[in-house]
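Case 651 in the screening queue. Each case pairs one protein sequence with one candidate compound; here the compound is zinc ion. For every case the pipeline is the same: read the inputs, emit a complex structure as tokens, and attach any notable structural observations.

Predict complex for case 651.
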Amino acid sequence: MSLSGRRRRLSAVTGRIREDDIALVRERARIDEVVASYVTLRNAGGGSEKGLCPFHDEKSPSFHVTPARQVFYCFGCQEGGDVITFLQKIEGLGFAEAVERLADKFGVQLRYAEGSASPPRRETHLRPRLIEAHKVAADYYADRLSSSDASVGRQFLAERGFDKDAAERFGIGFAPRDGDALFKHLRQKGFRDEELVTGGLVAQGGRGHYDRFRGRLLWPIRDSSGGVIGFGARRLFDDDRIDAKYLNTPETPIYKKSQVLYGIDLARRDIARSSQAVVVEGYTDVMACHLSGVPTAVATCGTSFGEDHGRVLRRLLHDHEEFRGEIIFTFDGDDAGQRAAVRAFGGDQQFVGQTYVAIEPDGLDPCDLRLRSGDAAVRELVARRIPLYRFVLGNVVARYDLDRADGRVDAVREAAKLVSSIRDRSKVDAFARELAGMVGVDVEEARAEVRRAAGRPRGDDRGAARGSVDDPRGGTRGPSAETAERSAPLPDLRDPRFTLERETLKLMVQQPQVVGPMAGGIDGEDFTHPTYRGVWDAVSACGGPSAAPDSEVWVSKLRENVSAEPVARALNALAVEPLLSTKEPTAGYVAAHVYRLQELTALRRITEVKSKLQRTNPVDQATEYNRMFGELVALEQHRRDLRERAIGDEA
Ligand SMILES: [Zn+2]
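Case 651 output:
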């Protein structure tokens, strides 16, 4: 969208901010303070602070801010600049708009060149205008809460344990029932019709403008720095023309529901301080939590918790390298809640070890719990959180009769599939141990079952399609390609399981001439990640690395053979990322990768055949047994050959 471009052009026409004023804004606006609204920063030594980058998704912090030099730079994605650049990028603002916002916040009086002392036309700073309009609207609505019309709303609050003070603390308001009261009020305050429509406060119908929210109880939704960006509205009257119990601000330039968290302005500092965030389901639950002494509660607004919400929280949560904080979900005890938990487990698993659930046995949400049992009960609910994985495993295990031996076997087998799908390999063993305790089997048995599950596609029980092989460089060769495809189209760059595949492909993309002579034995099976497999397929479709023309043409030729988006992105990355070797790759370096890759494939097949052999009776199934034994011998020989070639070429 070229909105920011349009704004920039407009402000160029309507008057420039004077250079010395811009310099003053740069000087006065504290970059660490501005950044802190979005990212929790920790001391990184040497006068720098660091946190999780808001411009790319990361698990450990590479986003650095140096207040003394007023700069930020991310070592992960190379975004960098000064405080103005930061605000522009994170809010999608034009230059002038970012300067104006900072000037406002840090008390710099801006003067405009070309003789004009007044700010440029209003289009140039849409966001502050929309936030201002929301602020005026929020005040107006809050004021109306004491009107006689609003008695149903006040009753609603009272029934849920919220008194006048609570309503004021959260800025709750009431939207009058007549069609355009707010519209008239805002117009009178100097806001223009387009601004109000763009901001979602007012809608336009056949008979003119009317208020979006009518006859409803309103919660102002704020961004992390406290600006009102939207409203959540609860139905109060039976004759409400809109059936939905809750109505929210639609997507606007300042309201993105995939990122908005109700309560974030109140919870932000406590989330950073305690490295804990509590995700509840509704506005009244957020209120109940905060009033009960759980100040880290937030809620999504009219949408389920998604990856963007997770990113917003993780940036605030980040504490230090070892401890990455907790996200606690309160779920209903009912089936829907439990299904949601299982789904969360199957989704973005990167943080599964940090995810907890707090379940109220009677299925009460925090608001009802506070009503029934008081503030302490809400605090206890959160304190009694359990790790998500334990909750999900418990649910799986509960489906089996653990008094029976076959029930235990089935329970372990079913739960092992879940455990093996966890991408954080460091957690797998602990989870396997826990599973063993839960079911009452030997730890080794649970581990073996997890390893077995890791070797085959999830949900596929046709047997060990792929063996699991320990990679001597650390990490177990984990979920099969199919599992990986479902959970992550782009391989995690730091995942050691794929380092070898990645490096070999980098060589093929960047140094095809060096790899060419050795690449003959490689085939698609050598790549366990589907995205890497896709890159190899493109290399293969172009005749393999030995068919490569000079390198500039090579990459574009490969690109032409790629249709899937993740594969195209991976290809670009493989083309620019430096090789792990700092020197020019020698034949030995290439061999170490190419042959090792094939050796791992051989190892996987060996494990697979061995496991089949174990399950085959050498007497009753002699022919089959002997065939597999022969295959195993041949595979072992093949593997030794590969190893010797790797070493031979290295020497
Ligand atoms: Zn970054």
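Case 651 observations:
- Residues 53, 55-56, 63, 74, 76-77, 79 surround zinc ion (CB under 6 Å).
- The longest strand covers residues 228-235.
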